[in-house]
Structures are given as structure tokens and as C-alpha cells.
Predict the structure.
Amino acid sequence: MSNPTHLQYTKEHEWLTAAVDGVSTVGITAHAADALGDIVYVQLPNVGDTVTAGETCGELESTKSVSDLFSPATGEVTEVNQTVIDDPALVNSEPFEGGWLFKVRVEATDELLDADGYTAFTGA
Amino acid sequence: MSLRLTALDALHRSLGATMTDFAGWDMPLRYGSEREEHLAVRTKAGLFDLSHMGEITVSGPQAGELLDHALVGFISALGVLRARYTMICREDGGILDDLIVYRTAENEYLVVANASNAQVVLDALTERAAGFDAVVRDDRDAYALLAVQGPEANGILAKLTDADLPALKYYALLPATVADRQVWLARTGYTGEDGFEVFCAPADAEHLWTALTAAGADEGLVPCGLSCRDTLRLEAGMPLYGHELSTDLTPFDAGLGRVVRFDKTTNDGAFVGRKALEEAAAAAETNPPRKLVGLVSEGKRVPRAEYAVVDAEGAVIGRITSGSPSPTLAKPIAMAYVDAAHAEPGTTVAVDVRGKAEPVQVVALPFYKRAR
């Protein structure tokens, strides 16, 4: 699956949308979802929590492993994707769409890559 | 050190497999979704490359006596073309490996060891063969091993062989022609389903894989990797060396004392580890140490190997050996060694999942048993 050009990416394999009214949507990339395998549990920050760019804000469990979720941005969490909490397999099937994880009111971001930069980083 | 490749390596790559280092072999972990592969084996059929397994042939007039001496089972009592699950232990009773032994002829046996222990088993058998009129031969390069597992396995094999499959019982084998190739066809497996293991020449592996794939297309056969093999065996309550079994444990510690046959009549009943195992048997009877149990969680977080099992006060009472989401039960399951006082099915204990106590219930093994 190619990396959508309208998103920005971290080296920890999260993606971030451009802000709308200051709020960006966060998810993990198809590359990350493929590497994890079937995702069975998603732990996300709570609405109202402040997350910090580059720091752990949740975890993703797959059949074989547990991985930390790193926030690509600093700011207040405004919404979490309850659908993905109920059906974590969405992260595998629609990583860039229905499998989004949470929304954040962005104050600052980590160093971000564009789609070409991320694709080059993953060696795809 | 570079990884060893099976005869099917190019085929796995053409199928887009995610590969993994398993005991020095580059093996398919999964081809797509491991959950889908798991469910295919439970409901239809799956095709596995198990060529990493370690085959050792033991032959000669005293081959049976040698195996009775070297292993804990009563191997010489096995009928020709029958198989047995058994173990090889140290003098102190510690488990070196668990094995399947196939009696391929009156004076010949095929010993199949785990990939990670194949050299250890080969060395131990070679050393223990001293004084016996028997030959121990490393046949790891002589065989590739495919497995077809699942309720449709019988029908798929039947399209490719004239062998009398209904007469081939569980834990039996036959020399057979499958897709015009000579193989050992065994009704064994590590999934909890009906199925077959096909020992063939490495040069025939690709032909057989392709023929089985074509024969199984209408039955829903899919290629399966080691990831689902692990969750299938866990649901079936089968131990995995390095997890439930180790040199620190005897077969009695693992709840598998039945594999130790003190009633052997060969070699005057003597075998490697007998004295220590008699003591372990007595201890298991009177003062059992930790017991191997099943755990089922109602939560979503998965108890994983090495996590601590704790009681209501948070005191450590055991340790997880294997844990995974169960595709069949749709909840996390695990095997664990827990103190005997907490080992009764129905007991509620907890697992320390990265700092948070997740309640789990002790259940009898296996988690899954197929309808027969």
C-alpha cells in the first residue's frame, strides 16, 4: 500500500493529517500495521489528555508482540476512535482511513517526513 | 551465521511470506493474516513447510533397545508403522527435547526432533548408542517436511494418493506415493486437527507443495506460517520446547509423566534418567511443585511468556510460558506454571501485564478439542 501524499509521517511509523481548525488526526502506517501482523488490542490516550511529540501515548498489541504508540504531536487529545478500540483489525485493513487512532489539537510536532521521505525511510 | 533455507524458500518468497529466523532457519512466519491462517486450519485446511524439523534415523538389530535406553518411552514396544510422542532426558531428569518417533521398519526408526534441539538430540543419541548394535544417522538434509492440517486434509490427500487413508490411524504412517512422489505419509501434527505430515526428498518438496495447493484449492487450503502453528498448538494445549519444556523441568513437572515408561522390559528396565525420574514421579505424587495450567482472560490484553502470575495480594505465584490471542475462543489464552494451591480449574488469579493486574481464570487444558 503506498503512503498517501496528503499525510506527514514520523520515523516511528505514525501519520498525521494537516490541521483542520488546529486539530490533526493520527494513525499508524500500512508499513507498521503489516510489520505488526494482526492487531488485537489498541490502548489509546483519553480525551482531554495532553500527549507529547515523540513520547509514548498508548500501545498496540498484535498476535506476536506489543508495541508502544508514539505521539507525532504535542497537544490535547480531542477525540479517540472508539470503532478501532472495538475492532482493532481496522488498523490492519484501513490503516490510513477507518483505522485512525486519535485526534490532537496540535501545539508542536516531532520532525515529520513527507510521503516520499517516509517511503525512502522504510526502504519500500 | 547465515540462515538455513528450506527447499521451498523461493516459493515462500513468491507467495509474499513474512519470514523469520527460527532456530537458525529462515522460515515463513505468515503469508497474510495469521488469524485467517489459523481459522483456515480449524475449519478447512492449511499447508505448512516444516522442513526445519530435525530428522534422525536409528537403525540396526538393537535400534529399539538403544531408543529404550536413550529415551523415556518404551519405543521397542511400538508396532511397525506406528508413531509415539516421547522425550529425551538428561541423567538428572531434565528434558533435552520432546520428540516423535516413527517406527519405519522392524529395525529402523525415524526420530523427529525440534529444530532448536536437533544437534543436541543427535549428539546424545550418538553418545548413548555406545555398546548397542545400532547406527544413528543425521538425516536432516535427507528430508523436507510438509504438513497438511485441518478437517479437509483427508479429502485433499485422497485426490493425490491411492494410499488407504481411512486405515491410516492417528499416530501411524505409511510409505506412500503422493502426486507421483515417494514419501512417508504420517497422520501426525501439532495443530489439534486431523492432518498429515509428509516426509519427502527435498528435491520433491516444490512439486508436492504445488500439487497439494492445487488439490486443496476448492477446499479452501491456504499456506500457513509458524505464527499460526504456535497459536494452533497453544489452543490444543500442546507444549513447546523452550516454553513449557526445558532442561530445568522433568516430564512430571510438565504434567507429562505418562510419557515416562518405568515398565520397560528391555535393558533390564534401565534407561538414562531413570533414578531422577522416579524421584520426580514420587514428588509429583506427594508434594507437587508448580503445575502447568491453562489461563483464560476476559480482558483484551494478552498474557505473554515470562509475565508473572500473581494472587489477589499481588504475590507472585507463577509464570506464563506461552500466551496469545486465541482466534478460536476470541479471547486471550495462556499456559503457565502456577503453585499447586492455585492450580485448580475455576480459580481466579491475575497476570501482571506490564504493571497492571489482569484477572484470568485457571482452566483445564486443552483450550480446544476438535469434535471427532
